[in-house]
Design goal:
Length: 192
Amino acid sequence: MADFFDGDSRTQYERMRAGDLYVADDPIMHAQAARAVRLQSAYGAAYLDDPQAARPILEELLGALGPDAHVRPPLYVDYGSYLRIGARTFVNYNLTALDVADITIGDDCQIGPNVHLLTPTHPTDPQRRRDKLEAAQPITIGDNVWLGGGVIVLPGVRIGDHSVIGAGSVVSRDVPARSVAVGNPARVVRTL
């Protein structure tokens, strides 16, 4: 493998957090990922008995959890620490939030079942992919946004306040505030 990082003294973790190319072999990443697996599993198990009693586990897992936010398990994250969920937001079953970069979900959002928020990117160059290089771009979802079931939001996307994304849509570019976007790729079809 070529030395893609010659002259760059940063750790792989530091490169990841900066949004630059990195290789996911840093001990910090491994420890954080293992922590996330333990906590998301513990949250799911505790939720079965008492959703309110499970909340402290979710608060420990996530970067931030607003008041009266509710997340139904199962929840799948890479790290959890880089996922922020706003106040009064409702997240339905089976959210996959690959939070290699920051994911911010605003206040009063409705997140349907089986939604995927995907921050990781991989090179199109075959050799760089073979060498396990990757990067990530943040996702930002504004306040009072509704993501229908099965929506996929790709790296670097911003969805503006009060917007609606139709079920099954693939959001590959920014969506302005007060918009309805549908399809693959999602296109704005109406302004609210």
